Amino acid sequence: MPIQDKSPNSVPRKKAYKSSRRNRVPLSCEPCRARKPCHNCTVRDERASCKYESPKNISATELQHHPSKRGNSMQQRINHLEDLVKNLISQHQQAPVSTGGAGTGSSMETSVFKASDSTHSPSKKVIDGAYSVYKGGDDWYDVLQEINNLKQVWNESQGDQPGYNAAPTLPNMADGSSLLFGQVQRIDKIELLTTLPPKHQVDKLIHHFFDRENFPIPIVPILHEPTFMREYAEHWKDPTKTSVIWLGLLFSILSINMLAYQQFGEPLDYEGRSESLFQLYRLRTAQCLIVGDIAKCLPYTIETLRLNATAELNRKDDNSRGLWIMTAVLVRAAINMGYHRDPSQLPSIPPLQAEYRRRVWIAVSEMDDMASFVAGFPRMISSVYADTVEPRNVHDWELSDDLTVLPPSRPMTEATAVSYLIFKTRLFQALGRITDFNNTPTGGSYEQVLDIDSNLSRLYNDLPEELRLHSERWGCTASGKKATGSNMQLELLYHQGMCQLHRRFITKGRTNPQYNHSRDRCISSALAILEFQQFMEPFWYDFSRARKVLTLSAMILFLELECRRRTPDLNSVSSSNSSDDILQALNTCCVLWEKAQSVCDDPQKIFKILSGMLSSFQASATSSSLSQPETTSPLFEFPGMMNLSLQHGHDTFSEDKDWLSVSNEMIEMNIDWASWDAFIEGAIFENRD
């Protein structure tokens, strides 16, 4: 039904066409109604040919006296043309291709939209002064770009006419990408600017952020400091001209500063305020990404998303699932801007920009591997073809705007700002393979396990002495320097990866020599993690991921002790770790958990569980050998563990008998590790009344 124009300037209709129907309040604006096809055309699948009658009923005289209506009419025609091209693109993507063979490169040629004379490459990356967009090899995208240019020219020409009023932007409107940020709402740019602290305060925070030697949180070196400082100075000259995405980058830097103060000590200026400011700046970062729209491929979009992910990664609470979902957005935004293609394919990119694009992509890849490993879900980039090479191991002072040729890469034994990122990315690629293997629906072969193990061990041994911890003194590196949080993180992640790779083969290693390697690897890494616990600062217990790794290691050792108590070791090669050594490590572990109860509430729950289990094994050790099988009956159970069973009669295990129960299937170790990990996270640690 044509839309009735009730404005005073509308063209009067004849009485014969007057309808007696009740007028309805429109639920959408006129441009939206004009762009959308009517119900009948939608049902008939004729959306492209649908045209409303109302625009044609406006006379030329009226259009001449009312430029706004003329602008609306022209805008509707442009929008209609844009919709037609989008429909053609959609049909093109859904059109059947030749079945002559995959990967031959001929599928595009057999499409109904064959462009045999096209001079475009199959795919290309468009980079100019303001945008970086990766486009597929499709000429219809060029047509769409021409339409976008036409719209821009038309809007600019209409902006010079006094009678033309552009539609106001709704500050609370959320579109595609911004929906992933939940309850975050759009706000005006002026409100974003008023949130910034005074310049002298921001100056100190920026200096603190770029002081990599003393900044407590590892920061990926994806920002060229001289370039950023030049843009920072321009911002304060006229903040209203600053890009919203660049503002998001600034807010992400401020949020990481507040997070560092919150976790490692607040200066007097921010005493008692760092946590609330972290939440505020984190919110403003998300709002800048919404207002700037990450799909527009503006400069610093990926850098802002990546630094925002750094802030999320270093939070104390368990946000692994949210981080994994956020990383998926980061990966897709980076691919959308062509970061997965090496800049050498486009010689027009300056050497400085090319090198930092490589740093950004490797930082995105590292975050993808890390988020997937922490959450236990598949990676995003594992199936994506990317040819971006590693950045060169050069110092930041060697890179400048006037470079014509990049300096040669320094030896990897020489520490630079980017060397830690390179080694960490290599290690996480191996950890990502563990995540992929554990998520394989059909399960992989043991040969794959050994291959992943060999690759992870090689990468770990290739770490320079500056990054690897001393084999006997975990408080310092292999080179003798005091260990940092970055050193400890690499060590902990390596052993955590070994536990996650080999834990399903612990029991099989007692009866089958083929799996003895996995058994020793898993037990040794679990013991190494508990040894690492002795050097942990108390504040580490406040981090959910640290508590989870430490508890999982202890549980693996308890399960090994139970296997030794129930069944003799039929393997001709016994484990190199004795039961006494394991019990001693678990005893030290419980002592440390007891001391950590003053840090936060969670260690108290974990200490109660572990100390109860330790008491059970210590009691059985005094009465009989741990290696001899004994009669069993249910004593405790965990979710997803098929009713695991322990020895009958050990009442010292825990006072809470209602959550303790076990079954005969423990020897099979058929554990649902997803449910087990959920248990480790603390969901079952609460007391039952």
Automatic annotation (TrEMBL):
Query: Does the keyword Manganese feature in the UniProt annotation?
Result: no
Extract one GO cellular component term from the record: nucleus
The residue ranges of the Xylanolytic transcriptional activator regulatory domain are 323-397
* Basic residues biased stretches: 12-24
Record GO biological process = DNA-templated transcription
Q: Where is this region: Disordered?
A: 1-25
Polar residues composition bias: residue spans: 1-10
Record's keyword terms, sorted: DNA-binding, Metal-binding, Nucleus, Transcription, Transcription regulation, Zinc
Signal peptide location = none
Would I find Glycoprotein among this entry's keywords?
no
**GO MF annotation list:** DNA-binding transcription activator activity, RNA polymerase II-specific; RNA polymerase II cis-regulatory region sequence-specific DNA binding; zinc ion binding
Q: Kindly provide the name given to this protein in its UniProt entry.
A: Xylanolytic transcriptional activator regulatory domain-containing protein
